[in-house]
């Protein structure tokens, strides 16, 4: 089934030129996740292979409405950026083995699946916000910052809901809402970062370029929260 990820990545890349091809890349990525889910009897959210494939599909799915926004309808740069980002994570998933082991008891709950899925939807929107900030810095229009704000705001909402569902999952799994693991600490740092950024943006703080750069930095923090912590630090939330 991994060939579907290659097909998805190729369509995403060619989607830089045509929106229907971008949609085909998303369809291939979702088809792969659906087949994995049917084979496993659950959402494929365990291990680097499944999470990277899910992240790729989440980027494609969250980017889709922006492809039709008036400010981006004719922007090949946004299509190229979103397509390359989604393709990158699809290809990164390929070298990792796809696990088919049964879930341990602490993960057999809807709260776990909801927690992880919402987090990746948030990461995807933070990625789109960073891309929009980059296009603005490259000489784009002022309204791109408004789209960046909307992407970050919806992503922040998803991420907040992910933290709540994660706390509920933690209570059922370990009897506590908080364990002080590196993942939880960096999750809090990411949430506080976007809380501060959105507050400044909502208050109409000056320095448009600084806000655009901060939106890009936010995605870097999100990437470290997702990948860096799992690779560099021991945590109950590691792959």
UniProtKB/TrEMBL annotation:
Residue spans crossing the bilayer: 51-69, 76-96, 116-139, 151-172, 178-198, 210-233
InterPro entries per record: Cyt_c_assembly (IPR002541), Cyt_c_biogenesis_CcsA/CcmC (IPR045062)
Cleavable signal peptide: none
Sequence ranges assigned to domain Cytochrome c assembly protein in this UniProt record: 58-234
Entry keywords, A to Z: Cytochrome c-type biogenesis, Membrane, Transmembrane, Transmembrane helix
Membrane topology: Multi-pass membrane protein
Example GO biological process: cytochrome complex assembly
Subcellular localization: Membrane
Gene Ontology MF terms in the entry: heme binding
UniProt main location, coarse: membrane
GO cellular component: plasma membrane
Record's protein name: Cytochrome C biogenesis protein ResC
Organism: Geobacter pickeringii
